[in-house]
Design goal:
By secondary structure, the protein is mainly beta. Helix content is 15%, strand content 42%. It has twelve helices and 56 strands. A hairpin with a 5-residue loop joins β25 and β26.
């Protein structure tokens, strides 16, 4: 009987085991497993509490600072801090889309649902506070306005505007900063506030049939209202003319779809329409120095025609972009509204492209496709100067992607052969200026000098004396640059600027030492220098300062310190807010800078991050990440988040018990793949001197160009036990001959003189391309590879990932590929970011830590 019972129980046990064979059975918890579960819970908590901090705006008096706190959940919170009291949050509100500071401690808010709030920030006095709302915010005189689509402040915060939507007749309400209503303007379709805080509004008049009868432009000054202009055409926008003495109305002819333009004098209110024979869909207006003469860039969309079958592509075609992009006709004019004079500059000059120089006589002129051969991302341009008065042109030089123009078009400055070339337009005289250590040029407004940022100091070049002098103290190892100076862009896709500073006004100058992560700011005014932010350590970002330069605010962080908000006043730095205070362990984090020699004996650095809770008596796996140079990231705080566009997060790996290594790569004549292999192998030799790293448990990860190099290294190296490669090229011989859908041009430029640095065409050195092509040696891969890409990627076609997957599959290699259908070169979708991060962590856990619970990795 006992034997039968034992057999019965054994049978029941076997049936249960068979029936529940796919259900994970809890095993006795050993210390390592306890640590893993605790680590998972800790990561989830750390991730859920982590947030990003952004500086938004500082009040004019420097008393208040608006910041935004953004959680990974998507919730954002606006906070207003006092700049003189640490950790003093006087106001909080979620889902705010816009904030404006007013005078007398008042603010104006607009949320994402169209609710505007007008509040006075309360300041506690003698232990008593103003009224508090349900969220504990201190305020006084609060008002709420609904269905608002725009808020705006004028007269330096003394007044403000609220513009409701159509539910309130698009009525523009005008208030004082004290909340008193000054005026209401109904049926406003658009408005403009000029630099003198004058208000111009367009109002529509509707007849009895509820149809628009006409549009009127009114000027409002104080209590006065003045009609400037009326038309029956739709006024889409109004714009202050560059001369400051007229207003330009941009109007749409609803019958033809073409735009019209009218200049309206602000002195006598006379209107001057542009010739109706000029048909365009878009126009920009610029000044050329003479008050009543405007430069027009008129664009007319070309009519879409049905493409012939077949399309004809010629071998000497220099406008391949038109095969992919909508086409338009661009024409340049000079327009004098009062006389009606309209001059077609293309016809008179004979050039396709004209750039004004704020000079009524001289213009830059060139034919943009003259030298185009698609071997450069931006083709060189043969620049000429067109003399409108004499109707002549003079060739200046062939230029690359950078050009700077002086205030009134007296000079051109551009780099050539490691020198700056200064060209005087009036007589063609050229001065050569050493480019060694001087960059970021700005002409002074008087045209007599050039201020350069650069090594060791801020420099002034005297054009007349042809000599340099320093404008700041000289500090070896620091790079100086001017902050927030205005450059007027002259040509899209090129660094062509009108680069001018007012050297009579205060200048904010940054000086930074990238090697030791130190920085500071000073204010230059006349011949005097004032400390703005004393020299300090760490990574700095998001600099803000008020108009009087009395208060500076910025974010400061380090690899072992979450971002904190620092306010500098009177030369003193004070921390007023610490973000992510729950991240207590990061202060104990450790990082080493690893020095080694890369390709062609180039000195390089790599950043080695230690595991959190590092124990020197233990061995740990390591993940290396590659992409060009990365040592500049040494002061970055790696916020723990699963929402990573590349699926890679240093901090998550640290928390899970990994070393993380970010080595730099140098490039030599043997090509980008071989250069990466040589640099990474040298880096690994140096970093593995750290005996806490297990050399048999090291992974490599890269994306885009780093992914290509990961693919290549996987075909040549036995140093890595697992690889992750994202959005990466695999067959560079094929891709070299394809079109890039992101840039709408052939890929020649990227390989010859772009990121791949081949220096020669495929035909000139086929063997160089062959030797650096991962696909040709896919059979040599010895470790598992995880490949991923977005199927909407226009920069690296997702077919490259599928191609490498096929090559590995055919050679019976251990490979998994992830294809995200709705994402691009990096992950756009929040769900994709999280999924990719989890999968990459699973992948490395599986192969570097022998954690085999990731079913998707093992389910083959």
């Amino acid at each position: 009987m006992k034997t039968a019972y034992r057999l019965f129980m054994m049978l029941i046990t076997l049936l249960l085991l068979y029936g529940f064979r796919w259900i994970p059975v809890p095993l006795p918890l050993f210390p390592a497993q306890e640590l893993k579960i605790k680590n998972t819970n800790h990561l989830q908590k750390l991730f859920s509490e982590s947030y990003e901090i952004q500086l938004l705006k500082i009040s004019a008096d420097g008393k208040w600072l608006a910041v935004k706190k953004i959680m990974d959940s998507g919730q954002d919170t606006l906070m207003i801090l006092r700049t003189d009291v640490p950790e003093s949050i006087v106001f909080k509100r979620t889902h705010v889309s816009e904030l404006q500071f007013l005078i007398d401690n008042r603010i104006l808010l607009l949320d994402k649902q169209g609710k505007a709030e007008y509040l006075s920030l309360g300041v506690q006095k003698k232990g008593k506070a103003y009224e508090k709302d349900s969220e504990g915010n201190i305020f006084a005189n609060g008002k709420v306005f609904n269905q608002i689509k725009k808020i705006e402040v004028l007269k330096d915060g003394k007044e403000f505007l609220l513009w409701p939507d159509s539910s309130q007749k698009n009525s523009l309400a005008w208030y004082t900063a004290g909340g008193n209503l000054l005026r209401v303007l109904e049926d406003v379709t658009t408005y403009l506030i000029d630099r003198n805080s004058e208000l111009y509004a367009v109002q529509k008049e509707i007849n009895g049939d509820k149809k628009v009868k006409q549009y009127s432009i009114f000027k409002f000054s104080g209590s006065a209202k003045r009609l400037l202009y009326q038309t029956n055409r739709l006024i889409e926008s109004i714009y202050p003319a560059p001369d400051g003495e007229s207003l330009i109305s941009f109007e749409k002819d609803l019958t033809t779809g073409y735009m019209k333009m009218v200049s309206i004098s602000l002195k006598d209110f006379k209107s001057y329409p542009l010739d109706d024979s000029l048909l365009f869909h878009h126009v920009t207006v610029k000044s050329i120095g003479k008050e009543k003469l405007f430069f027009l860039n008129a664009i007319k969309n070309k009519t879409e025609t049905k493409k012939s079958s077949p399309e004809i592509w010629y071998g000497d075609d220099k406008n391949l972009e038109e095969k992919f992009l909508p086409q338009f006709q661009e024409t340049y004019y000079l327009w004098e509204p009062e006389s009606g004079q309209l001059e077609n500059l293309n016809d008179s000059s004979g050039f396709q492209k004209i750039i004004p120089l704020h000079n009524e006589r001289y213009f830059l002129a060139f034919n943009p496709r003259e030298l185009k051969d698609y071997t450069r991302k931006t083709s060189p341009l043969l620049i000429s100067v067109y003399d409108r008065m004499n109707n002549t042109s003079v060739k200046v030089d062939t230029m690359g992607a950078e050009l700077h123009v002086s205030a009134k078009g007296e000079y051109l400055l551009y780099p050539k052969n490691n020198q700056w070339k200064l060209y005087r337009i009036s007589d063609g005289k050229t001065i050569l200026i050493s480019k060694n250590g001087v960059e970021q040029p700005y002409f002074t407004r008087d045209g007599k000098g050039i201020v350069f940022g650069g090594n060791d100091a801020l420099w002034y070049y005297d054009i007349g004396k042809e000599s340099f002098k320093t404008l700041t103290g000289t500090t070896k190892g620091y790079i100086y640059r001017i902050m927030e100076s205005k450059r007027e862009s002259l040509l899209s896709n090129y660094n062509f600027y009108r680069s001018v500073i007012d050297d009579k006004a205060p200048l904010i100058v940054e000086y930074r030492n990238e090697m030791n992560n130190r920085f500071g700011y000073e204010k230059l005014y006349g011949n005097k220098s004032f400390t703005g932010i004393p020299t300090t350590n760490g990574r700095m970002s998001s600099l803000l300062y008020n108009p009087s330069y009395s208060t500076f605010a910025y974010l400061q962080e380090n690899y072992n310190m979450p971002p904190q908000i620092v306010v500098a006043k009177k030369g003193q730095n004070n921390v007023i807010y610490h973000s992510n205070p729950q991240d207590t362990k990061i202060s104990e984090a450790k990082m080493d800078v690893i020095e080694y020699i890369g390709t062609e004996n180039t000195p390089l650095k790599g950043l080695l991050y230690y595991p959190i809770d590092f124990n020197p008596s233990m061995n740990y796996p390591m993940v290396a990440h590659i992409y060009e140079t990365q040592h500049h990231l040494s002061s970055q705080y790696w916020r723990p988040t699963y929402k990573n566009s590349l699926g890679f997060n240093v901090r998550l790996l640290q928390e899970k018990g990994y070393f993380v290594f970010l080595p730099d790569i140098a490039y030599g004549s043997e090509g980008p793949g071989i250069s990466a292999l040589q640099s990474v192998e040298s880096a690994m030799k140096a970093v593995l001197k750290n005996t806490s790293i297990d050399p048999l448990k090291v992974g490599l990860i890269g994306q885009s160009f780093g992914g290509y190099q990961t693919n290549f290294i996987a075909t040549r190296s036995d140093l890595f036990k697992a690889y992750v490669s994202g959005a990466a090229n695999a067959d560079i011989v094929h891709v070299y001959h394809t079109f890039n859908e992101n840039y709408h041009m052939p890929e020649f430029w990227r390989y010859e003189f772009g990121q791949y640095r081949m220096g020669k065409s495929f035909s000139q050195n086929k063997e160089l391309y062959f030797r650096n092509n991962p696909l040709y040696h896919a059979d040599r891969v010895t470790s598992p590879m995880l490949l991923w890409c977005g199927m909407q990627d226009k920069n690296v076609n997702w077919e490259e990932t599928r191609t490498f997957y096929n090559a590995l599959k055919r050679n019976k290699k251990n490979v998994i590929a992830l294809f995200y259908p709705d994402d691009g070169h990096s992950m756009w979708q929040e769900a994709s970011k999280t999924d990719l991060t989890y999968k990459i962590l699973d992948w490395f856990d599986f192969y570097l830590k022998d954690h085999k619970k990731a079913i998707w990795v093992n389910n083959k």
